[in-house]
Automatic annotation (TrEMBL):
Coiled-coil spans in chain: none
Superkingdom per UniProt: Bacteria
Chain ranges of the HTH tetR-type domain: 44-104
Protein name: TetR/AcrR family transcriptional regulator
InterPro entries, per the entry: Homeodomain-like_sf (IPR009057), HTH-type_Tx_Regulator (IPR050624), HTH_TetR (IPR001647), Tet_transcr_reg_TetR-rel_C_sf (IPR036271)
Entry keyword annotation includes DNA-binding: yes
Residue ranges of the annotated DNA-binding region, renumbered to this chain: 67-86
Keywords annotated in UniProt: DNA-binding
GO molecular function, one term: DNA binding
Length: 262
């Protein structure tokens, strides 16, 4: 293939839009956005380089250890250039992690049309496990910044509330008017908080005892997603239909309430 043909093929590939849900790793999504962005000014390109550099450094070393010089090295720009676009590392971190948080929520979204309640839960939890594992360093930074910057903590809480509202609406679609909205929302918060704590102890700040247990009981992403989905379904909808195939740990967990013979 000639150079011109390869260039034309590359341009055609870039022209094909990719939905955010097709990505697992945020850095890959950000790189795609930068590569496919409409024609930019030199200043816009430099700002994007700094944002991408910040994401790389945050993912590797975390917020507390990151230095402005690290960002500039990753971006390939002079140190003084940074201050033309951002005041300090807190500001650039707030910007890039805010965008990461918003994109991550979209990455975790799945299409539930035609799926049973359990299949929908399993698809959502599988995407959650994948996205959280692929972005563990950035998730750690989101927690670090939220502990120190109230404005960012409020942003994170608002994003979580929006996510839990979506879950509550899914619960209400299954239960109809028999369940008050606030009860559905509190249920979503409770189950979501379980997921957040598992993410912290398995991926973000690993608890050796829990990690060892998880590797024995539900070692793969699929095993863990299946197991968590059984807990979700049993809490919200009751017994799992008997015709659904489950991985060993998930199947064992159904003994808590039994299987629905259908």
């Amino acid at each position: 293939m000639g150079k011109a043909a390869r260039q034309q093929q590359d341009e055609a590939a870039q022209a094909v839009p990719r939905d955010v849900t097709s990505f697992i790793r945020y850095a890959d999504y950000l790189a795609h956005l930068i590569e496919t962005a409409p024609k930019q000014t030199k200043g816009e390109r430099t700002r994007d380089k700094l944002k991408f550099g910040a994401i790389q450094v945050l993912d590797e070393v975390g917020y507390h250890a990151m230095r402005v010089s690290d960002i500039c090295d990753a971006a390939g720009v002079a140190a003084a250039t940074f201050y033309l676009y951002f005041d300090n590392k807190e500001q650039v971190t707030s910007v890039v992690l805010g965008e990461c948080l918003e994109a991550s929520m979209k990455m975790m979204a799945t299409r539930h049309s035609g799926k049973s309640a359990f299949e929908a839960i399993r698809a959502s939890n599988m995407k959650w496990v994948q996205v959280t594992a692929a972005n563990a360093g950035l998730m750690r930074c989101i927690l670090q910044l939220g502990d120190e910057v109230e404005e960012f903590r409020n942003l994170s809480n608002a994003a979580n509330k929006k996510w839990y509202e979506r879950i509550a609406q899914s619960i209400l679609r299954e239960h109809g008017t028999a369940l008050p909205h606030d009860v559905a929302l509190l249920s979503a918060y409770a189950l979501g908080s379980m997921m957040d704590e598992l993410a912290r102890k398995l991926l973000i700040h690993p608890d050796p005892a829990l990690v060892d247990l998880q590797l024995r009981v539900a070692p793969s992403h699929e095993d863990l997603a299946d197991y968590l989905s059984v807990l979700w379904h049993q809490a919200l909808y009751g017994r799992i239909p008997a015709d659904i195939d489950l991985r060993p740990a998930a199947a064992a967990a159904t003994a808590l309430v039994g299987r629905d013979p259908g």
